[in-house]
Amino acid sequence: MVEEEVEADVEIKTTADKFYLFSRRSQNVVSATRYIQGCDLLEGEWDKVGSIIFWKLVFDGEPRVSKDRIETVDMEKNVIQWRVLEGPLKKEYKSFLKTVKVSPKQGGSGSVVKWNMKYERIDEKVAHPKRLLQFFVEVIKEVDRYLLSEE
């Protein structure tokens, strides 16, 4: 199989810097959305490349977990990447890389969050992760609402 990708752009009202700084520290996201039930640091330091994060999620009404390694933290470009190491996704995908990039909205206030997932399916029977992409779109929207309510 070959590496494939899906992505979505989500317009938010929060500034790019505020959204990025908040979501860069993974443990913050738990307080901002009902979809993320927990986030534990297993190795390393929060928001440092190479650190291992254990996520507890609710996806399609079911509890899920994901053990991820932080691959990239680029504060100049407002980019974070996580590689999935263990969890249900690893049963269907040989590799799975999640990337979030936050950019100021051109010609207006707010910003745009680009959520990208690069993956390699174990075989043709495995679906593309479109429902998972929609899940992350909803998480982004909830974090935006949370940050706006904090102002």
TrEMBL record:
Pfam families on file: Bet_v_1 (PF00407)
Biological processes, Gene Ontology terms: defense response
Record-annotated Bet v I/Major latex protein domain positions: 1-150
Superkingdom field: Eukaryota
Protein name (database record): Bet v I/Major latex protein
